[in-house]
């Protein structure tokens, strides 16, 4: 099994070089800087390679690597808190953002977005396994502390739909999970695949039997007005990946190694 995982990791890393150069040279972009928040398996997370070095992997990383490769560029990953991503894009500290990010009216004021490349399961509520039977509807969270990542639509869900619940917003998903594990919060809201991943890797956690509506597709964000004219190439890459079924391949590869995610 370890050999299979090593081969998958090698395949992911060979999609493109993760460089650290400057953004452009002679008018031709040589490096694409990806802004992401690598605490969100299976979309973006960190694992150790055979030499003990940290590597960024996941569905979004693979998509971003393919985007850069199709542009003839290297990919540089800039890891930061999720709620800093739009600001980094506006300031020019990132060229693209992939972080399981949905298009909202507020985000449209700060960035332009590509065509959708992936639609996750609907958002889910993660609770302690020994208390899961207590939560069968949103009303059951009244008076409870419910965590969500700062700046996400999941935090909005808690505010809008969990009547009487107290929102606990933290920048790190790892911190949110730890808060739940150690009974500092009663529940946390995450994107569906992420919630299932954490439940799968921790027997003390379980996805509550509560529905939170439909999922919105994920898109790539670029600077408002697309001044670097990236969207045409990005959309072409997305169309190719979707038509060839490569996104599902990326998802399977990420699932196979996500139990190696490190904090």
Average pLDDT works out at 89
Number of helices: 9
Number of strands: 16
In sequence order, what are the helices and strands, one letter per element?
HEEEEEHEHEHEEEEHEHEHEEEHH
Backbone CA Rg: 18 Å
Strand order, main sheet: write it out. 6-3-7-16-8
Largest sheet: 5 strands, mixed
**Percent of sequence in beta strands:** 15-25%
Low-confidence segments, given as residue ranges, are 1-27
CATH class categorisation of the largest domain: Alpha Beta
Helix content: 25-40%
Could you give me the name of the CATH homologous superfamily of the largest domain?
A: Periplasmic binding protein-like II
| Structural class label | alpha/beta
CATH architecture of the largest domain: 3-Layer(aba) Sandwich
The structural domain count equals: 2
**CATH level 3 topology of the largest domain:** D-Maltodextrin-Binding Protein, domain 2
Ends distance: 22 Å
Oligomer: single chain
Shape: globular
Notes on the protein architecture:
The protein is an alpha/beta fold. About 35% of the residues lie in helices and about 20% in strands. The chain is built from 9 helices and 16 strands. The radius of gyration is 18 Å and the shape is globular.
